[in-house]
Amino acid sequence: MPPAYPKAIVFDLDYTLWPCWCDTHISMPLKFISHSEVEDSYGMRLRLYKDVEMIIKELKDNDVYIISASRTATPYIAKELLQRFHVSGRPLIEFFDSMQWGQGSKVKHITKAAKELKLESSLEKGEFILFDDEYRNRDVLSINCEFAHVDERKGLDRKVFEKALKIWHHNHKN
Question: Which residues are CB-contacts of 136 (< 8 A; sequence separation ≥ 6)?
Answer without folding.
Answer: none
